[in-house]
Design brief:
Radius of gyration: 37 Å
Number of helices: 3
Number of strands: 0
Strand content: under 5%
Helix content: over 70%
Order of helices and strands: HHH
Shape: rod-shaped
Length: 114
């Protein structure tokens, strides 16, 4: 009985020693696979970066369109090509004045005109 038990323990020890290397290999592979998916430069992080880039591009396009509109308005106020309508609009805004036959429509701060 003691010999049988010793044989079983020896077989179990041999099985355990032969399983250590494959288990270590699987653990190492699992580590790299997890970081390939969830790590700082993983696949999920790539999707998040692409979303942030798309949002930044949309913001850039919006700001560029706003810049073009402002440049167009400023161009109308320059020297030899002075647009009388824009000059009058800007003067009224700065002086806070309106004509007698005009109606003032107030806008809230969230609804900017320009």
């Amino acid at each position: 009985m003691a010999e049988e038990r010793a044989g079983i323990l020896a077989g179990f020890g041999k099985l355990l020693r032969s399983a250590i290397l494959p288990a270590a290999f699987l653990a190492c592979c699992g580590y790299f696979v997890w970081h390939a998916l969830h790590g700082e430069r993983g696949l999920f992080a790539k999707d998040e970066r692409q979303d942030r880039v798309a949002a930044a591009v949309a913001e850039r396009d919006r700001v560029q369109a706003e810049l073009v509109a402002m440049e167009r308005r400023v161009q109308g106020l320059r020297g030899e090509r002075l647009d009388p309508d824009q000059l009058e609009e800007r003067a009224r805004q700065l002086l806070n004045m309106v004509g007698r036959d005009e109606v003032v429509v107030p806008y809230g701060p969230e609804r900017r005109l320009f």
